[in-house]
Design a protein that fits this description.
The protein is of the alpha/beta class. It folds into three domains: 4-56, lambda repressor-like DNA-binding domains (434 Repressor (Amino-terminal Domain), Orthogonal Bundle), CATH 1.10.260.40; 60-157 and 294-322, Response regulator (Rossmann fold, 3-Layer(aba) Sandwich), CATH 3.40.50.2300; 160-292, Rossmann fold. Helix content is 46%, strand content 16%. The strands form two sheets. Strands 2-1-3-4-5-11 form a six-stranded parallel sheet, with helices on both faces. The chain has a six-stranded mixed sheet with strand order 7-6-8-9-10-12, sandwiched between helices. It is elongated and about 85 Å long. It starts with a helix and ends in a 7-residue tail after the last strand.
Amino acid sequence: MANIREVAQRANVSVATVSRVINQNGKVKENTRNRVLTVLEEMGYVRDKKQEVTDNKKLKRILVLIPDIANPFYSIIAQGICEAARKKDYLLMLCTTERNYNIENHYIDMLRTGMADGAIIVAPVMSGDELEKLDAEKNIVQCCEYEEKINTVSHISIDNYMAGVDAVQHLINIGHEKIAMISCDNGFLSTTERENAYRDTLEKNGIAFKTQYLAKMESDYGYRTGIRSMNYLLNLKEPPTAVFAISDIVAIGAMQAIQKAGLMVPDDIAVVGFDDLDVASLYNPPLTTIYQPKEDIGRLAMELLDKKINGINSGYESVFLEHELRIRKSTVK
């Protein structure tokens, strides 16, 4: 009795092509399909009963695109997605895009060609128009950072503007007026919203916004971004007494630079981060930061995608989860 590999060799096609023909899924050219069916008949191929049981379960494949698995923020979101996917018997294909358009588009082709039943896209690089077109054709959910405000693609996030307001208002409440922000030039709408919150909160409290206090020297949320931007702020004629950093990793880099300069946190400069990664509470001093429910973001993104795939909810749904200011010793003793 022939097996699938022998059929593939006889038909001069890949094992994957034979599998698609047998399972009637995925795109196969008509002449190739006919050739494979002829060889199957000639060789008397009989499907493995175990394979039939597996096929009957109709295992669905989910594509998950994240910028960087090494970034703990994204890896925790991915963990939440994986947890929800396992409970619903989905097979996950986790891919990193490095925020590169060509890499992202290459993986999205897997969705377009039917190799995946749906996709969760974290921090996409593609334009809003491209996302909307893809959403009209396929099952997708977008979460966390994104570059454009889109009102047709389902999305999971927090209210980044209000979270930024809470962070800056805390610094003002404890007596600071010379407040800087370390941001980055990545084009995310979430970044823009946090920057707007920084400016607006200063102005609402009668504190003039100073361009030199908004440090945007790098394009990522990295540790070195914090070091370099903080060094720039320390070298100003009038350095800030408090800093709002766009992420915890950036904040820790900033604290490293402050301490290396012989200054104390929070005595000389107070620091607030964003995300509440595990390292935030373990650092010395522990970091005041904005908590995001990272696992819940991933879990709910998967649940929302599952509804779309099963036709329970095919429309647009935008979900904003709670955030929380967690005050630690980087701002108050």
